[in-house]
Amino acid sequence: xxxxxxxxxxxxxxxxxxxxxxxxxxxxxxxxxxxxxxxxxxxxxxxxxxxxxxxxxxxxxxxxxxxxxxxxxxxxxxxxxxxxxxxxxxxxxxxxxxxxxxxxxxxxxxxxxxxxxxxxxxxxxxxxxxxxxxxxxxxxxxxxxxxxxxxxxxxxxxxxxxxxxxxxxxxxxxxxxxxxxxxxxxxxxxxxxxxxxxxxxxxxxxxxxxxxxxxxxxxxxxxxxxxxxxxxxxxxxxxxxxxxxxxxxxxxxxxxxxxxxxxxxxxxxxxxxxxxxxxxxxxxxxxxxxxxxxxxxxxxxxxxxxxxxxxxxxxxxxxxxxxxxxxxxxxxxxxxxxxxxxxxxxxxxxxxxxxxxxxxxxxxxxxxxxxxxxxxxxxxxxxxxxxxxxxxxxxxxxxxxxxxxxxxxxxxxxxxxxxxxxxxxxxxxxx
Length: 431
What we know:
Layout: E1 10-11, H1 22-34, H2 44-63, E2 71-74, H3 77-95, E3 102-106, H4 111-122, E4 127-131, H5 141-147, E5 152-156, H6 170-197, E6 213-217, H7 230-233, E7 237-241, E8 252-256, H8 282-324, E9 328-330, E10 341-346, H9 351-360, E11 363-364, E12 366-367, H10 380-385, E13 400-403, H11 410-427
Parallel strand pairs: 1-11, 3-4, 3-5, 5-6, 6-7
Antiparallel strand pairs: 2-8, 7-8, 9-10, 10-13, 12-13
């Protein structure tokens, strides 16, 4: 009897979710078995659990050069983004009644930011400016700078895009915001002094030393980019996601400078400094702390390794154009991109079809973004960088994202390229 051996699975969706690290699993298992008491309890077992949470918070804070009380645990990266955005806007509105806050973001942000921006607009709680990106997916700094105004309370630009992998100039954006802040401070100081000299009372419009705040979603960046010093990055709020760094699912982090006030999304028992009520999971938190530590230790070595595989993959995939008859292009800047990200568009064939065909061969990639994979519309990120339809009239149906990980090898790319070539040959007669 012939036995059919299962195909080797090749997982290329590490930007969507990563496998939990073995060290992380071990720590989580121990916590689930031994430390199950409520961390708010004052008896000994509860105190032990609270101590473990505090130690994990301290460990993570040290890894990004932050204070312990600046680390807030949430349920996901999406929740962290929402807490940052809605928390800043609604907190500002409470103190500045009658004034409409202004938010600046980019057209290619994660839905966790874009959908909440649209929510704020629909409720009349904020006005939002969506800044354009260039053909390579890099934000237009001059447009961002020109969008800043007196009532701008928050600028939110992601560190690295989850779909096309482009890396944004976070430190340059921070400098623009600091310059604007300084300019506003000087203008309001002059206004107050002039009013006093004229014998009039004067009250600043807002806390002029703080706004606008700068938030970045760094969920895709932690594995590969600089996050070791918050001060050098120049951000006020930063989002992290455990599931992207080989940690447990269902846990995120929001870094928040301690002098920033946020309005909580909901009420409850007062956990996480009153910003994220609900009984904490010590297993998830301890697991995330370990995952973060592992990531920081291997970051540079893994980035160098994956960059070589990424560039090899880009070269091989683009070379398929010559042999397949399909036009294939790279989405996003070739160099200013995450070490693990390859994103291509193949004109004339559905990206969804390619994903299904590759899945049948036990090769797992994604089309568009995992968080929008059930959306029948084309990728808004691709639309933002592709201003016009191709001159040759060929059709584009979204994009194919290949995101490498710790288990990825150069040989896996060869298998992928060979599989795509066979699929394109199969459908070429219907092209």
